[in-house]
Structure formats: C-alpha cells, structure tokens
Design brief:
63% of the residues lie in helices and 6% in strands. It is α+β, with helices and mostly antiparallel strands and 289 residues long. It has two domains: 61 residues; 199 residues, no CATH class. The strands form two sheets. The chain has a four-stranded antiparallel sheet. A two-stranded parallel sheet has the order 1-2. Strand 4 and strand 5 form a beta hairpin. Helix 3 runs antiparallel to helix 4, helix 6 packs across helix 9 and helix 11 runs antiparallel to helix 12. It is elongated, with a radius of gyration of 22 Å.
Length: 289
C-alpha cells in the first residue's frame, strides 16, 4: 500500500539524493518507492527546475522503478486469475498496461471515458425500444465510428500511442488489436456478445449470435468466416482452425505487449521495450508453463 506524502516532503527528500553518504541516498530511494506511483508527478515537476545532473539522474532512475509497479500489479492480477481459473478484468489490465507509460492517468478517468461512450450506445438502443442483434451492432458502429470517430491510425502507425488504451482514447486512432479490444469492451458493457479473434497479422472481433466477424480496424466491416480464411491464406499462412478461435484475455495482453515492444523499438525507446519483453516472458511462463 502506498504511503501518504505531500509535495514538501518530496522536495526535502529529493535534496537528499545528492548526499555523499550512499546509505542516506539508498534510504531516500526506498522511501520514494514506498510512496507508490502517484509520486511520479511530483518528481517530474521538481525535475523541471532541477539543475543538478546527479539529482536528475537519480530521479529518473526512481521514476523508472516506480513505473514498474503497474506491470507488477498486472502480473499479480493475471496470476490470481489463473489460480482461480477465471478470466481477469480486461479493462483493468489495459489500464495497468497504460499506466506503465502514462503513470499520471487515473483508473477512474479511463473507466469513466469508456462509460460515457457505452452510455451513448445504450441511449440509442433504448430509443429504438425494440431491436435485434443486427441493430445492436449498427448502433454500436454509429457511436464508435460516426459519433466518436475512432479510426485506423493514419500517421505513424507504429507509435506506442496507437496501442496504449489511455492515449488511444484521446487520439481516437489505433491499430487492429487496440481498436478491436476497445470496441469489444464497449459492446460488452451494453450487453452485446462480442469477443476477440487473434488472426495472424490481424485482429478482429466476432459476434456469435449473428455468426459474423467485425473488422474494427476497417470501420466495422462485417466479414464471413470464408472471408477471414481467405485473408489468412492470402497473408501467406496455411489456415488452421485455431486461427479463428476466441482470444483469451492473457493472449490479448501478450499480443498487445508484443506490439508495444515493436513500437517502442521503432521509436528508440529501448528501456520500455526491454521491460515489456521481460513482462511478456513472465506472462508466458505463468500462463503456459
């Protein structure tokens, strides 16, 4: 549990990071870690006006250590779900993954943003009074693509911002898996049965009631099973039935993290890429060993 702190305490502790006694600086660093991830904002603000290279360097190292906390929480969440043989909450998992990159975001802010979108869909459904599975999807598409204008990433496709849930909610641009998972989360909030399908080189969602696949990356185009198989074959793969099986939440997080590793490397963010590679290795060991 995080320890209470205020900006004055943070400022006093930061000044001690330059102490010549290593025992003192080690204790200060441990104190910062005990504060939890919320202290990062205070450290970043202080660093803006900090001239000392020593303090800058040590603050940066502390911030990196603090940024690992959400991934540790996410790993623990997944471990518990596997032990209990239950799926973990995908929204919470994606929030924690986002917090690794954007430590200042709040879970309430993310969930509230998604809730507003889901309420817009629910309002349209309530206005219809009588609706079926097809009209449910049509209303979801209307809100997601027309009103909210979520769309395929057009600039810098491999930017990490197009994969992290927090940034994608702001930019409204994403890659196939990030757009699909957000679409799926909103659908499930309003009672529309949809789940993810992790095809090779692409990610879509599936509605079992209508037996149709939905390509969220391509403005919600409906696809048949035959069309999905054709895409897989045209992409150079031999089709196997497992390629159209339901994606588990673990597989979604692993695939999302893999995309982030690639994105961070493309942008020369080697520390983030290395951390996420280790995170993926931990998940694979936990989930598949």
């Amino acid at each position: 549990m995080a320890v209470h702190f205020d900006s004055q305490i943070v400022g006093q502790l930061v000044s001690l990071l330059e102490d010549s006694d290593e025992t003192v600086t080690n204790q200060v660093e441990k104190r910062f870690l005990s504060f939890g991830i919320d202290v990062i904002g205070h450290l970043e603000d202080l660093m803006l006006n900090e001239a000392s290279d020593v303090i800058q360097s040590k603050c940066s190292a502390i911030i990196q250590s603090l940024r690992l906390l959400p991934l540790q929480r996410l790993t623990s969440l997944i471990m518990t779900s596997i032990t209990d043989e239950e799926e973990f909450d995908l929204e919470e998992a994606l929030y924690l993954l986002s917090q690794f990159k954007y430590p200042r975001i709040s879970q309430e802010e993310i969930f509230s943003h998604i809730g507003v979108i889901a309420n817009e869909v629910q309002t349209l459904l309530d206005e219809l009074q009588v609706h079926n599975n097809l009209t449910q999807l049509m209303m979801l598409n209307q809100v997601f693509f027309e009103q909210r204008q979520f769309r395929a990433a057009s600039n810098d496709f491999y930017s990490p911002e197009n994969t992290y849930l927090a940034s994608m909610l702001q930019s409204k641009q994403g890659i196939p898996i990030s757009l699909s998972v957000l679409y799926m989360i909103i659908a499930n909030r309003v009672g529309i049965d949809i789940y993810g399908i992790g095809m090779p080189l692409h990610f879509v969602v599936y509605n079992p009631n209508l037996n149709i696949y939905i390509d969220v990356f391509n403005t919600g185009v409906f696809l048949s099973e035959a069309e999905c198989k054709k895409f897989i074959v045209n992409s150079g793969f031999q089709f196997e039935p497992y390629m159209l099986e339901r994606a588990t939440n673990v597989s979604i997080i692993v695939r999302t993290a893999r995309n982030l590793v690639h994105a961070h490397k493309k942008h020369n963010q080697e520390w983030e890429a290395k951390v996420l590679e280790g995170f993926i290795e931990d998940l694979q060991r936990i989930a598949y060993d």
